[in-house]
Amino acid sequence: MNLVLQKAPKFTAPAVINGEEIVENFSLEQYLGKKYVVFFFYPKDFTFVCPTEILAFQEKLAEFEKRDAVVVGCSTDTEEVHLAWLNTPKNQGGIQGVTYPLVADASKTIAMNYGVLAGHYDYDEEGNQIFVGAPIALRGTFIIDKEGIVRHQVINDFPLGRNIDEALRILDAIRYVEKHGEVCPANWKEGEEAMKPNREGVAEYLSKH
């Protein structure tokens, strides 16, 4: 499911903010016109790969804030489970110290709307509704601009942890394109030369590399 260049699906859901406070009506719309949003899904609380990613985002949080971006996480766990995990020390498998919002998608509708739910509802031969696959989110990452448009998405399988520095690189590229009107070639990083979006610009760039 491709969301790039589309409006990010809206939602209102419970979330834990500042690592300690449950709010009932959290929405990404509060950031419209103000911030870029790095919105990521992870499979489950109290697991193994997930805390490495969540803590890695926290370690780089100041870098995202420098880029005028907020980080928001989401899983299909409840807000109470989020809060319990946030209150569990790192040396006991917890994520204590994480301050960015964690959204509770217990209904699984947010994951479905973003195309990251690892399964689907169906019916068995007797007409009973069943779930086929895993009723949890894959490792999806979405970068949403200040207008609420999805500019980047990537979805990983459960065992594959994501690269937080790549999210920063893509955010840098989005900001550069918006500011300069140029395009960013393969492996571009902040401070490197970009290209004019025409044949002459491409030819000039390639002639230097």
UniProtKB/TrEMBL annotation:
Pfam family, one: 1-cysPrx_C
Main location: cytoplasm
CDD domains in alphabetical order: PRX_Typ2cys
Source organism superkingdom: Bacteria
MF (Gene Ontology): thioredoxin peroxidase activity
Thioredoxin domain residues: 2-176
Family label: Belongs to the peroxiredoxin family. AhpC/Prx1 subfamily.
Function: Thiol-specific peroxidase that catalyzes the reduction of hydrogen peroxide and organic hydroperoxides to water and alcohols, respectively. Plays a role in cell protection against oxidative stress by detoxifying peroxides.
Protein name: Thioredoxin peroxidase
Species, as recorded: Thermonema lapsum
Lineage, opening ranks: Bacteria, Pseudomonadati, Bacteroidota, Cytophagia, Cytophagales
